[in-house]
Write a structure and sequence with these properties.
The protein is mostly helical. It has seven helices and two strands.
């Protein structure tokens, strides 16, 4: 029995590709194209974020999260529509795709934390911590989630 050992870097075309880049290309190939990318896109487009936009932080998060979600849906549509016709264009964007996805999912989790923190702050629970959580979520929305549409482009 022979075993193959994956090299640290693989030569592809005229450049060297690192393991991280290979992993991101694998993720794009498997998560979107082989595992119902159209369904992923439909879920991203039709999921409605329920917000009580009663605070500046919540409104800011909602605005940025909607833009990030739309950028994600557009990227998924591009990958699904172009994987067979122009795979080089699709896989060249695999690392930005993973960054976009990670920022979106982290933003969603920060948004969930924001809503809970606002509820608990209104109830008077651990006010200093809740204010810090709200500030952190707002910072994430205004400084990290704003990068997502740029990753799409």
């Amino acid at each position: 029995m022979t075993t193959s050992v994956r090299p640290r870097c693989t030569r592809a075309t005229d450049s060297w590709i690192s393991r991280a880049e290979l992993a991101s290309m694998d993720a794009v190939g498997s998560s979107i194209t082989r595992m119902a990318g159209a369904l992923t896109s439909a879920r991203a487009r039709h999921r409605r974020w329920r917000w009580p936009p009663d605070s500046v932080a919540a409104r800011s998060m909602h605005k940025r999260l909607q833009a990030a979600r739309e950028a994600y849906a557009q990227v998924v549509d591009f990958v699904v529509g172009n994987t067979k016709a122009s795979p080089n264009a699709v896989f060249a964007g695999s690392v930005p795709y993973l960054m976009l996805t990670g920022n979106l999912v982290a933003g969603w989790q920060m948004a969930r934390a924001l809503l809970v923190a606002e509820e608990r702050l209104a109830a008077g629970e651990d006010t200093d911590f809740m204010r810090a959580k709200i500030s952190t979520a707002r910072f994430y929305a205004e400084h990290i989630l704003t990068r997502v549409p740029g990753l799409r482009d």
